[in-house]
Structures are given as structure tokens and as C-alpha cells.
Amino acid sequence: MSILDRFRLDGRVALVTGGTKGLGLSMAQAFAEAGASVIVASRHGEEAGAVAGELAARGGTRCAGYAVNVTDLAQVESLVGKVLGDFGQVDILVNNAGINIRGPIEELTLESFEVVQAVNVRGPWLLCRALAPHFKARGYGRVINVGSMLSVIGMADRTPYATSKGALLQMTRVLALEWAPHGVTVNAILPGPFATEMNLPILADPTVYQSFVAKIPLGRWGELEEIQGIALFLASDASSFVTGAAIAVDGGITAW
Questions:
Q1: Thinking of the domain 5-255, which architecture would CATH place it in?
Q2: Where are the domains positioned within the chain?
Q3: pLDDT in tens, 177-186
Q4: How far is 231 from 19, CA to CA, in rounded Å?
């Protein structure tokens, strides 16, 4: 098999949460172009279905969209059951769905803190738990958890988000150890500043935006397609000896 063939995803089935926009959509597009069938999971079922149709046209594979609240145990288990019933397998899981609530700790409510943990931590945990028997039975799986540069560095006014992304990184490492004997790899991507919907408050404030850019060695924010290379690598057989890794895609900001 040639090196380029090892990056192909023909015959693979990928499940991407939060796959209707931003980094999730960009990764889903890369998987479809590489030959995978892609399941887009989102709180908005109609939107997920529309995106799946676009992905199918893009990659020539069968794709589908499903509605799910990743914080809800019953909905997650139902999603996994439907996907396995419809597609027969899941080879790649991308835990991308996430939210961010900013502010000084004394101005944040307990509810705000807990909802961030629910989406960013409980959601990935529930999905991994639901798919664990399937991955182990098949002796194969590629799990990609989308963390953040705030998985490893701090930033003021980000206690809910940074706490959740630090936890997700540790979840990645523990599951990598648990599942290594079963042929399942678990890795994390740690994005830096990208022009996603989550970061619109920063983009809308020129002063804050420039302060961000000043801290990025490459001197700019990331373009959405710049997440695709590392995602495809971790989803493919090219990364067969990589597990428990946390790979920053941040323009060098965590290298300071």
C-alpha cells in the first residue's frame, strides 16, 4: 500500500458531532473526500440532513444526518443504535460538539459552568461509552477528541471552557490506555484561534482580535481547511501507531 493510500478512508464510516458548521464541518468534508461515509450529528436534525446531502455529493459516498443532544444518555444510545443499524459499523468518532461561555468567575452562574461541562465532557464520555463495545468487538477504531489550546494553557475569563477542555485531554489519555489492547486509537486535536461561530465575540472586537493575533507566532488566525490534514491523518491508517497524543493546530501559540 502506498503512503497516499494509507490516508484513504474508503469503506470507513465516520461519526462527527457538531458536524454542521465550523471545524466539525471542515473535518466531515475531508473525510467524505477521502472516501468515508459520514454521519453528521447535531441538535438540529434538518440541518444535519442537509449537510449530509452535500457531503454525499462531494465524496460520492452514503452519508446521513441525525439529531442528538450529546448530553442526554438516552439520545446518545439511540443515535449509536440507529447508526449501527443503518450503516453496520462506526470506524471513526469525532467528538467535536462544544460550547464556550466566557466571563470572570464571579459573574458566571453555576448553571453556565455545568452546561459547558455537560456538552464538552459528558457528551464525549457518553459517546465513547456507547461505542466501546462495538470498537472492542471489531478490534478497530479511531477516536478524535477536539480539545483546545486551553487544554494545556490558561486564559482569563475562561474557567468553564478551559476546565472542560483540560478534562477532555485527560479522558483522551485514559481511553488511549484502556483501548490500546483492542486496536483502538484515541487522540486529541488542540485547535487555536479559528474563525468559527464560537469565536465571533472575539472577531467582532478589533482590540481583542489584535491582542490574539499578537500572541500567534504565525501572525494570523487559522483557516477552517487547515484542520483537515491532521484530522484525516488521525482518522486514517496512516496514524496506526499514534495514540494518546495531543496535537496542537494553533499557529504556534502554545509553543511560547
A1: 3-Layer(aba) Sandwich (3.40)
A2: 5-255
A3: 999 999 999 9
A4: 13
196-233 CB burial, b ≥16 within 10 A, e <16: bebbeeeeeeeeebeebeeebeeeebbebeebbebbbb
Q: Which cell is 223 given?
A: 483557516
- Grid look-up 440541518 returns 47
Q: Report d(CA 216, CA 230) in Å as an integer.
A: 19
For the chain, the residue count is: 256
Is 161 tagged catalytic? yes
pLDDT for 40-81, tens place per residue?
Answer: 999 999 999 999 999 999 889 999 999 999 999 999 999 999
Active-site hit among 66, 140, 161, 209: 161
Whether residue 161 contacts residue 102, with contact meaning beta carbons closer than 8 Å, is answered with yes
Cα dihedral 68, 100, 200, 33 sign: negative
Q: How far apart are CA 137 and CA 132, in angstroms?
A: 8
